[in-house]
Design brief:
The chain is α/β, with parallel strands linked by helices. It contains eleven helices and 15 strands. Strands 3, 4, 5, 6, 7, 14 and 15 form a seven-stranded mixed β-sheet that branches. A six-stranded parallel β-sheet has the order 10-9-8-11-12-13, with helices on both faces. The protein has a two-stranded antiparallel ribbon with strand order 1-2. β11 (209-214), α7 and β12 form a beta-alpha-beta unit. The chain is globular and about 60 Å long.
C-alpha cells in the first residue's frame, strides 16, 4: 500500500511516499481502507518532533481518517466489514490502510462524503466538547469565536448556532469573514483592521461575550480577557499565533471568569463513552442541515507536503484533506 513516511524529524517536504506492507488488526482493533485523511496542525508538529507524543521511526502521520472497514480484530463487536466509518488514530492516517481502536471508530451517515467525514472528528469533536461540556453554552448567550474560518473555529461557529447562541466571529481578511458569515456567524470582526475588544463591547452594548472560543492565543487571547462578560467562560483550544499567553489571575477574580483548557483527544482514554453520545448528536445535526463541513482543499496522498504547507501558511479555510482514490 502507499503511505507517507517520516524517517527523521523535519519539514513536510522531507516526507516520502513509499510502498509498505499493510498492517493487520490486533485484538480490539479495526483495519480500514482509507478513502481520505484529515490534515491537522498537530501532524506538522509530529513530524518535526515537537508533538507531545514522539513516535518511533519510521511512522506515518495522520490522526483522523474516513473509509471502509476491511478487517476486525479479535473481540470487536458492533462493527462490520464494509461499513462506512470515520476513525481517530494515534498516527498512520496518511496511508491507503490504517488501524484504529474499535472504540475510536464511528459509523457515518450515508450522505456524508469521504473528504468531509475525514475532516469531521477532531474539529467538530473539539468544538462540541468545548461548548457543550466545558462552557455549557446556553441559548441566547453571546459566543465569540476566534480563528473562525479555520477548521475548529468554523465548527465552533456552526455548533454555537445549533445551541442557540449569538455568534461573533473573528478572522483575518474579507474572504475568511465571508466564510464565517456563510456558516452562521451573526457578526464578524477583521482582527487585522479592527480592535477586537472595542468591537465586541460595541456589539454587546458594553457587556462582553459570555463564552470565548480561542484556538489562536497570543494577542487575541489578551483581547479576549478584556472583552469577556462578567461570569464568562474562556475556552483555551490552542495557540496558532505561536505565543502561549499568561493569564493575570486578578482579571479572572474580578470578573468571575472561568478559564478552561480543552484537550478533546484526552476523552478517548479518560471518558470514551462520551464520544458515542457526542457523535450521535453531531451526526443528527448534520442530517438536519445545521452542520455543513467545509473542505477548502483536497490533495492526493502523494501531495501531503503541499497539503501541510497550506495549514502552515494559513492559506486554507475549514479543512484540508488527503485522498487515496478509494471509494
Amino acid at each position: 500500500m502507499r503511505a507517507v513516511v517520516c524517517r527523521a524529524w523535519g519539514k513536510p517536504e522531507e516526507l516520502e511516499l513509499e510502498d509498505v506492507p499493510p498492517p493487520a488488526p490486533g485484538p480490539g482493533e479495526v483495519l480500514l481502507e482509507v478513502a481520505a485523511a484529515g490534515v491537522n496542525f498537530a501532524d506538522t508538529l509530529m513530524i518535526a518532533g515537537r508533538y507531545q507524543e514522539r513516535p518511533e521511526f519510521p511512522f506515518s502521520p495522520g490522526l483522523e481518517v474516513a473509509g471502509r472497514i476491511t478487517a476486525l480484530g479479535a473481540g470487536v463487536t458492533g462493527l462490520t466489514e464494509g461499513q462506512r466509518v470515520l476513525a481517530l488514530t494515534d498516527g498512520g492516517g496518511y496511508a491507503e490502510a490504517a488501524l484504529a481502536r474499535a472504540s475510536d471508530v464511528f459509523p457515518i451517515p450515508d450522505s456524508l462524503g469521504w473528504a468531509e467525514a475525514a475532516g469531521f472528528p477532531i474539529t467538530y469533536g473539539t468544538a462540541h466538547g468545548a461548548l457543550r461540556w466545558h462552557a455549557d453554552l446556553q441559548a441566547g448567550e453571546t459566543l465569540l469565536v476566534h480563528g473562525a474560518a479555520g477548521g475548529v473555529g468554523l465548527a465552533a461557529v456552526e455548533i454555537g448556532k445549533a445551541l442557540g447562541a449569538r455568534v461573533i466571529a473573528t478572522a483575518g481578511g474579507a474572504e475568511k469573514l465571508a466564510i464565517a458569515r456563510d456558516h452562521g456567524a451573526d457578526a464578524v470582526i477583521d482582527y487585522r483592521e479592527e480592535d477586537i475588544r472595542e468591537r465586541v463591547k460595541a456589539l454587546t452594548d458594553g457587556r462582553g461575550a459570555d463564552v470565548v472560543f480561542d484556538p489562536v492565543g497570543g494577542d487575541v487571547f489578551d483581547a479576549s480577557l478584556r472583552c469577556i462578560a462578567w461570569s464568562g467562560r474562556l475556552l483555551i483550544i490552542g495557540f496558532a499565533a505561536g505565543r502561549v499567553p499568561e493569564i493575570p489571575a486578578n482579571i479572572l477574580l474580578v470578573k468571575n471568569v472561568a478559564a478552561m483548557g480543552v484537550y478533546w483527544g484526552s476523552y478517548r482514554r479518560h471518558a470514551p463513552e462520551r464520544l458515542d453520545e457526542e457523535f450521535r448528536e453531531l451526526f443528527a445535526w448534520y442530517e438536519e442541515g445545521r452542520l455543513r463541513p467545509h473542505v477548502s482543499h483536497k490533495h492526493d496522498l502523494s501531495e501531503a507536503a503541499e497539503a501541510m504547507g497550506l495549514l502552515l501558511d494559513r492559506r486554507s479555510t475549514g479543512k484540508v484533506v488527503l485522498t487515496t482514490g478509494a471509494a
